[in-house]
Amino acid sequence: MENSQEYQLQVKDIHLSFGGLMALNGVTTGVRKGEIFSIIGPNGAGKTCLLNCINRFYHPEKGQVIFEDRDISEMKPHKIASLGIARTFQNVELFAHMTVLDNIKLGAHVHLKSGFLSGGIYYGKSRTEEILLRKEIEEKIIDLLEIEHIRKQVVHALPYGLQKRVELARALAMKPRVLLLDEPATGMNLEETEDMARFILDINEEWETTIILIEHDMGVVMDISDRICVLDFGQKIAEGKPQEIRLNENVIKAYLGEEDITYSRLGA
Whole-prediction pTM value? Predict the structure, then answer.
C-alpha cells in the first residue's frame, strides 16, 4: 500500500458482514485526486457494499474511511454529501413524477443557505438563490450532459438511458469533489454506453472531479480508468493500471474460473 497521504479518499481494513456472511473482508484501497478509479469483480464481490460503506449507507464492523485527511467513518450520510462526496445508484433513484430540472435541483440542497423558515421570511433572498442555482444547472450541468431537450419533461416518461443521465446530473448538482458511480451504463445500448463514458471523462477532465466507478462493461473500464481495484468474495485480489489488471491471472480466474482462457472478456 502506498503512502496514505497520496490519497484523496481511502478505505482502511473495511470489514462488513450480513448475518454471518462476510461481504467485505479487510479491504484497503484509495483513490488519488483527479483519478478515475474503477472497482470491478464478479457479481457478489462486494463492490456496491464498499461504496455503501464510503457514504455510510452501511456501517462496517471494522475499518476507517478517510477523506482528505479527515476520518468520516462515523459521519451521517447527509454530512458526507455536504463534504463533497456524491453518489449514483445501480437502479435509478429519481422522483418519477417530478421534472428533470426539479430532480437535478434537489441535488444542490446540501449547498443552499436558505432553509424553509428563512425562505418564508426572506422571500427575495431565497428567490435570488433559486434563480442563481437554476442558471448554474442549465449552463453547466444540463449543457454538459446534453439534456436541454428534456429539461421540462417528467422523469417517468423518459427512456431508461436518459433517466440514468438525469441521475448523474443530480449528483453533479452537489458539486462533488469525489463522485461515486455505481454501474452508470447498466441497461444501456452501445451508443448510450459510449455517451456515458464520454460524459464521465468530461466530468473528470473539465470539472477536475475524482471518480470512483463500478462498471461491468470491461471495455469502458479499461478505456477510461487510471487505476483499477479488483474484488472477489469481499477481498481485494489485485490493484493497478488497466494493462496490469487485464493480464493478471488471479483476475482472469475470478471472472472466468480457469487459467487457459483468452483475455477478451477483460476488455483486451
Answer: 0.86
Residue 122 identity: Y
Q: What does DSSP assign to residue 6?
A: G
* Runs of H (alpha helix) within 72-217: 77-83, 100-106, 116-121, 123-136, 143-144, 160-172, 190-206
Q: Are 266 and 246 in contact (CB under 8 A)?
A: yes
Model confidence pLDDT, tens digit, residues 234-261: 999 999 999 999 999 999 988 876 444 4
Task: Decide if pLDDT at 112 tops 70.
Answer: no
Buried b (16+ CB within 10 A) or exposed e, 115-138: eeeeeeeeeeebeebeeebeeebe
140-172 pLDDT per residue, tens: 899 999 999 999 999 999 999 999 999 999 999
CATH class, 4-266 region: alpha beta
For the chain, the structural domain boundaries read 4-266
Q: Give CA angle at 193 (94, 198), nearest 5°.
A: 95
The beta strand positions in the chain, using DSSP E, are 9-18, 21-31, 36-40, 62-67, 70-71, 85-87, 178-182, 210-214, 227-232, 235-240
| DSSP 8-state symbol, 55 | T
Cα 267 to Cα 7: distance, rounded to the nearest angstrom: 27
